[in-house]
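ARCHIVE CARD
SHELF: 3
SLOT: left
DATA:
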Amino acid sequence: MKALLQRVSSARVEVAAEVVGRIDQGLLVLVGVQPGDDQLLAEKMLQRLLDYRVFADDQGRMNRSLRDIGGGLLLVSQFTLAADTRKGLRPGFSTAAAPAEAETLFNWMLARAEECHAPVASGRFGADMQVHLVNDGPVTILLET
């Protein structure tokens, strides 16, 4: 599983010009599910996202987590994050989980996030989404399990 987290001052996801997910300060996380990923890995990734220290403390150092600041979490499934780019000029997607498998695990991760954190929002799995964000910093970090 790969998660590209971006520290944002605001973010939203639109599908067909309708806002389906929105947060203020927090993390926008693009999630790429790979073959063999399971609930144990998804739980590990979720807890890491909630506890990863990318927000400034009183001295301006990245010592505070999403939990610490009570910020929003916006999860967006993105199979292209799992692309194989090692050769050629076009990505391969054999390294991404099958859509049904990825959707099940992404929805499970989203439900777990809603159980242990607020606010939580998401995009719409498999939809053509428009993601709008104000990257704060900018801070963008790739996490892998």
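SLOT: right
DATA:
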Amino acid sequence: MPGGALEIDAISKRYGRKVALDGVTFDVRPGELFGFVGSNGAGKTTTMRIALGVLAADSGQVRFAGEPVTHETRTRIGYMPEERGLYPKMKVLDQLVFLAELHGLSTNDAHRATELWLARLGLGERRKDEVQKLSLGNQQRVQLAAALVHDPDVLVLDEPFSGLDPIAVDVMSVVLREKAATGVPVVFSSHQLDLVERLCDRVGIIRDGRMVAVGTVEGLTRGAGSRLVVTAPAARPGWASTVPGARVIESSGATTVLELASSADDQAVLAAALATGPVTEFSRQRRSLTELFRDAVAQGGFT
């Protein structure tokens, strides 16, 4: 089954008058890391639960490899919930073996897979510990192991980096990249937007149950307005106000950051800066995912 795309196609969900999801559509391609971001309550977890079959959509469809997701398909999905989904009094080793067997592995295969992931995630020395005695970060590692132990064909992870220290973040990042490299589609939500920007091939931004942007960060940046950083030591405040389509968004000393409308001419900005004297910096500034996210959440789109 590996090699198919996970498709979320026009999924809608209501709770009475509350619209939780309104035609949510995106896909996660084979071998892709897809970041799913949005504010609390935007619809991320609801979307993931529908993909898992935990919730039923009012309309729309979830497909994998071109076919509607069935119970059998779901057994091939590795899911990591945001909330702790482990048995607190069960030992780590026993728990992972049990979960692997639930996914159809034999007892021997379940033990082999469990030992592999315990070693891979740095949990070997904690195999006999009860989950409740682990730190929150180590519990998070166990949850990732639980999502991976049956060698899934799809990974769906809800806030997998929550509570992890920088070393654990690096370990988990490498694991997710390696899994994607085998052709598995990987989708995860996170509020750590710098991490999403660094890791993901594409991102989707959801606001109030609606997708407001899907694409690469670079691609979304190109459609989100252009910025210029200009350093003109002799320029007086307001020097750029005469340039059509240029808006000053930050000014510090001799350096001014301008946002340009699509119709604006960067050469006109340069000419206006040179008219004030020497220009020691004239460069484009790529907007960060955090800035794109703020625009999308605040306004439902990009400025």
